[in-house]
Predict the 3D structure of the following.
Amino acid sequence: MKPTTFREITGNSKGYYMLLALLGLTVAAGLGSAWYMEHNGHWVTGMNNQIVWGMPHVFAVFLIVAASGALNVASMSSVFGKTSYKPLAPLSGLMAITLLTGGLMVLVLDLGRPDRLIVAMTTYNFKSIFAWNMILYNGFFLIVGIYLWTMMQRNLNQYSKTAGFFAFLWRLALTTGTGSIFGFIVARQFYDAAIMAPMFIVMSFAFGLAFFLIFLLAAYKWTGREIGSYLINRLQKLLGLFIAAVLLFVVIFHLTNLYVTQHHGVEDFILAGDNIYSGLFWVGYLLLGTIFPLIICYTSAFRASIGWTTAAAILVIAGGLSQMYIIIIGGQAFPLDMFPGKEVSSSFYDGVIVTYSPTAPEVMLGLGGVALAFAATLFAVKILRFLPLSLANAKIDPHHSAQG
Amino acid sequence: MTLSVVYAILFYAATLLLVVGVVRKIIIYARTPAPLKIPVTPAPTTKAGVVWRMTKEVTVFQSLFKANKWTWLFGWMFHVALAFVLFRHLRYFQEPVWAIVALIQPIGQYAGFAMLAGLTGLWARRFLVDRVRYITSLSDHLMLALLVAIGLSGLAIKYLAHTDIVALKTWVLGLMYFDLQPLPSDIFVLLHLGLVIILMVIFPISKLLHVPGLFFMPTRNQVDNPREVRHTAGWTAK
Amino acid sequence: MKAKRNTQRFWLAAFIFVLFSFGVMADVPVPDIPEAVKGEQCVEETGFMRRNHMELLLHQRDDTLRKGIRTQKHSLKNCFTCHVVKGADNQPVTVKDSRHFCRECHDYAAVQVDCFQCHTSVPGGAKTTGTRP
Amino acid sequence: MSNTQDHIQDDNQIDSYRRKLLGGGAALAGAAALGSGVFFTSIARAKPDAEPASSEIRWGFLIDTNKCADNCDKCVTACNDEFNLTGFGRPETDAQWIRTVTLRDKKTGHTTKLPLMCQHCAHPPCVDVCPTGASFKRPDGIVLVDKHTCIGCRYCMIACPYKARSFVHETIENQKEYGPRGKGTVESCTLCVHRVDKGEIPACAEACPEKAILFGNMNDANSDIARRMASTVSTEIRGDLRLDLGVRYQGI
């Protein structure tokens, strides 16, 4: 195969600027929301002393997990030698960086004291998984940055495999760290599960690929560059595989909880409760986020369709957000079990299922993070050579080119 | 008090040299004819387009970005950080201080480090890249050394040995009010101010003139309309 | 041609004149630093305090909070207790008032004081506001 | 029984309680050891100002829930007064450093009431998870938040098994000199560290009319709290987590 030619997109159409402006406005709205929240204090959000992490964390954790997953396509080529994915590796690395940027923006701007970011970056408690995550996130930027550099500067291409390997190891560590934020919490019934770490890794595969697909397919469709059915089909199947893997882990997670008697309460609450969480689980995650996209990915009727694959990716993202909402909000809504066998009541919402109603600024901040990730990617492909001129079957499929 | 007087005189002299020197250069640039239409294509065909192009040149260094990513990275980092640092220094010249200056002020502290990082990158390039090393003259090193020394001495005041910042500001305001005040004689303050004086004096005869010079680049500031409008400048105007 | 050159020289001279008249002949504004009510020397020499009070405060704060060392010499409380500024009602003014000891210089130098986002800024603490939970 | 005796002197009240609990003989010995003095309003020795907190000491509470009266919240009021914990009429976001919790046994219907605050764990999960080390434990066992380095991430609130911490959701302007509090940081019971360092006992313990909250040095075998813990059974809330709490309860 001939080496792939990468080119900046022209990016001077009305549509391009309108899309960029729309994303920019969303980012601005997110920043404005953050300012509003910080200025007034967090009481203007739906978060309180019971639900201490809310919508911003749903979006932030989701984006951070997706970021490491977005690197997956690159790892497929550099670590697992799948050469057909090689032309996609630069975009994959780019999205890993932009998604993480978006996620961290949301996370940092929700802090009670975002002005002390410098404290967070310089003062570490090494027993805290959160502190490790700060190092993992910063290191991820660095390593993926180096990886991109080795891919994009020709005389460094020889090192890109090594760099890609380290980036792969690092992204595994990063998602393990993110999952462990919840996995290491002994106090809460829905957390405190070692399976959180590997489950987050598998979730990252699906979420990251979904984001990647949405951007890739839209970019090729709107720029009029060619993307062949071979590649779309492969990516479709890959997405299906990841969705199925997530389902497996979700099933194991809940089965374990259902087996352990003391977790029956919280499982009942999440899966069968008269609340939003069970609805999000069965409809949001299972039906919309898992079964529908699985059908799209594995049914020949939808084979290699740009539109349907995009739809599947959007559904995966919707399902993923549902999952995050269940884990983060649901896990906090269920009361702490401080006094087994006792009915507990107090002025501080002990013993009751607490409600959470997110307010607009929180959601706007979260959406601002997503918009930032897309805006940065959109801008980057205009000024740097991330996208191959063509992803036609002849350029990708080794057999195709062998015949030709 | 002797030091205050000496530094005050030096500052007045340096300011005069800087202003007169730069204005003189600007006049020279402005009067230098650009007889031909030579905008680098693709070039804008309207005046508004030229303004947009120059804005991009000034704010994001567009042509440098297209030419060399590493130089752009360090160069841009240095210039943006410098802008923040200079903005932060406005507080010495105002009473009361503008709210926006007070707001940016803390960011300026970190910008100091970014500025040094950018300068280090730019300096390293003059040693590490063969072609650049070949064309580097002693004065290029001097300018970089001067800027680095100014940055280091400034950071030293903030992080190593504090000064009486109120007294320092009073001294600076004293220059503006022609009401001389005592200058805190801390070593890093004297060093920092002394180096800035040197920079101000050298500025009008150094390559730092690219600051005003950028606006007079015919390859960038011309409208690409040779067929629509007859171009006259300098001797062609006669 | 010669007339044109003279015009240019005139404008140049005018410009330089204008530039220097930005400095107005007037007294330099200086912060009005409240004297210590006790009329005593500060806990350290004045020049030292003006340069290094933040280091002392940081050191004291860590010692007090983390180790439980409760000596008062370099405490924040000491600053605004000795240099208390009273308002029209003869009550100490809080940091919201620009005459507050800490604000006089910090406003002048455009340096934020974070302390009072958590700490009280008047001796004995401010009056109770708000409702009981 | 103790409800009817709140006018009686401190020592006598303790004595009567001990008599009831231990029987006459042990009570005599106990009373002798307690001796005279007002140990309920001051502890044995005030720490010199310049001396750092000692790791020899482990400050803690022993709370007798049997004495906790149904409609009493004097400990809560005392804490709120001590730190000016005023609310904004928004119970979901207003801070509570100490609260009374009512327990009702699902089978028997037996109810118990107890004050719940930061349990000052020897192995505090909040300290483990805090990314900047703002949550920390003093050598003498008091768990605090260093508000100078707290970034307001609230991970400690997720990790605390007792929901003992509050996030400051709005601007506060009525702090006490010894009790800094500020928007965007996390806070909780400080075990009245400012009083303890002066040799006084925490505000809640002082305010309790039934003397249900006993404060003292658990490491000192001669202290009242250590003696009482040695002689009667006490429990830790969520003892299964093995956090070695600084707050022990009797009667639950």
About this structure: The first helix of chain B runs from residue 2 to 31. Chain B has one domain: 2-225.
